[in-house]
Amino acid sequence: MRTLFRYLKPYWLSIVLVIALLFIQANADLSLPDYLSKIVNIGIQQGGIEPDLPQVIRISSFEALGRLLQAEGAGEKFAALQKVYTHVTPGSDQAKTLSKKWPLANSEPVMSLDLSDKAAVDAARQVFLAEYPKLVVMSQLPNAAAMGGAGALGGAVPSAGPSAGTLPSAGAVPGAAAPNMPAPSGQVPSGQASGAPAALSPQAILSQIDSLDPLAKSQLVVRGLQKEFEALGVDTVVLQTGYILSIGAIMLIITLISVASTIMVGFLGSRVAAGTARDLRRAVFTKVEDFSLAEFDSFSTASLITRSTNDVTQVQMMIMMGTRMLFYAPIIGIGGVIRALGKASGMWWIIAAAVGVLIGIIGLVFALVVPRFRTVQKLVDRLNLVVRENLSGMMVIRAFNRQDHEVQRFDKANRDLTSTMLYVTRVMVVLMPIMTVIMNVVSVSIIWVGSHEVSAGSIRVGDMMAFMQYSMQIFFAFLMMSMMFIMLPRASVSADRIAEVVNTPVSIKDPEAPKLLPKPTRGEIEFRNVRFRYPGAQEDVLHDISFTAKPGTTTAIIGTTGSGKSTLVSLIPRLYDVTEGAVLLDGTDIRTLALSDLRGAIGFVPQKSMLFSGSIADNVRYGKDSAAEEEVKEALELSQIWSLVEESPEGLERQISQGGMNVSGGQRQRLAIARALVRRAPVYIFDESFSALDYRTERAIRAALKTYAKDSTVFLVSQRVAPIRHAEQIIVLDDGHVVGIGKHEELMKTCDVYLDIALSQLKQEELA
Fold this sequence. Notes:
Elements: H1 2-8, H2 12-44, E1 56-58, H3 59-71, H4 75-84, E2 85-88, H5 93-99, E3 110-113, H6 118-138, H7 202-210, H8 214-231, H9 236-290, H10 293-296, H11 301-343, H12 348-392, H13 394-399, H14 403-429, H15 431-456, H16 461-502, E4 525-532, E5 542-549, E6 554-559, H17 565-570, E7 580-585, E8 588-589, H18 595-600, E9 602-605, E10 614-615, H19 616-621, H20 629-638, H21 642-646, E11 655-656, H22 665-677, E12 683-687, H23 695-708, E13 713-717, E14 729-734, E15 737-742, H24 744-750, H25 752-761
Parallel strand pairs: 6-13, 6-14, 9-12, 12-13
Antiparallel strand pairs: 1-3, 2-3, 4-5, 4-7, 7-8, 10-11, 14-15
């Protein structure tokens, strides 16, 4: 996974923006339940009135509150209120402004709140919220005159509870106690009702009001302000509707911010994921291009294809989902817990129990699924291998009538992958129904417990609804994190497989300070005490090879099957590196040359002729991008394949399919020869390049080479004696050893291996 972070560095700014946007989105989503709570608690239950300092209050109510505070000996508290309220007389400019919302200001003097001094306002707010509930209650008592509360609200405030002789009950004012107090005049005469509660003194009532919890006090403030606003001429229906609409507008704006953040996160996350996937594919492809044949032996072609496609796709999905979930889920989870406990701390155990059950289930799923992910990727490799072998070897399969066998082979690979994927999918699918059940149980539990707490006055309905929404957010946060924990192992496996390719050390690479080839390059090749052993092999396959190939000559290499002919010529372009000794080009060790310079001086025709999809001209110009049409034509004529161009209406633009499947084996070989010849290289290597050609065509090509490559060093690898009889130098290999060097006539006399090969192929008279 550390390799992956290296490819994320170019996108650090986008990742920072994603984190910032997710923080904004998470906070927006977390604030919505709080605003919903306000709509229910304040907008619906309290008529849009918040327990706060009123902007306008009648002078009679203000003075009554002052008398109550004076009677309590708290004159300094009333002074705090006087500091923030100013007297407004009817007919003044301020009264005209206030009358738009508070009609009574036109006919009676009122007190208006001055918000200029924030510290003074905060101090006055504390006094008001603590003392105003006493005025609301005391104004209902028949003997409240002694306390300065009789008629304070003009009889506008009704009984605070269902019983005339008590404070509001727990059902009427959440959290309020129900102490006994005298009944108002004309309702329940003291002592006339059997079992009537004993009357409390005003001081005792005030003391009990002080002991109420803040929620109960705030409800008393709201009840008093409702009647105060009605007395001021305020349309309470309009006030309530306006409050609900204003909070709804805020929620809509917050939702739009959340939506915009989601869109931007999706856009940036997709760019980061797609860009990283592109860079990973490029890195894998570039690294594979640098591989020598030794590195290719470590990875199958099917595996490299899977790593470049399926594995990169897994990493891309993980980055795309991770940029959102890995940052968003923790913010929502932690923030949701904090806000939920702030709304209803008594129901914390519901969330804890649900999350605990969810973590247990996720842990079980994790333990079952994760070990299968590496198996899945290996099975994808296997399936790709079978498909590739079938497509490449279709002619062989049909020739040997093995279609049924290959169908069974493919079916087994397909079923193995399918069964493993089904197992993984079935285990993961269980999460959704279990999550739905847990969510429903949590919702019912919150409603059940919350309704009892609402009835007991511990919380309000809006808080219970907000707690339910926060619990769902917390639940989904844990679910998102669990999905990431399940995706992460598979992506980690894929990332490790990609890193295995990217971090594979390349055994053949440019030297730190490459030497320059002498200009012009003559093309002299010298093998000096060369030994070679395949990586991981126990024995050498080439032993102490020494010879020199001069420019303007043909050096033929012949030997029995497996004697090391192709391996020998593969050392010249450094497809492999020698184990001991050195290969020199014009007296310079090829290991000290830049690979581009070395291979640019060689025209190579491999044993297996490989063509690429495109036109004939494109395939020939693969050897030299800048080749003019005349050069292409000359190379095609020399390789005896110009007839293929002439017989086609498209000419040089005739299309060659992938791998040259729409031309014959001999045509593929001749096009591969043309591709090498167009380079006009100082060194040419033909590795069994005439095996699919008839003798006449082969002889014509060799004759053309005598003139075209007269100054070049030509290597000709063959198992047949006929093509190499006239070579200036023939090297005979047997089990990796040079057993003969010389011309045909000399070797017939001095080399038994060469003689055996020649006698097995040619008649006695042809050898003369």
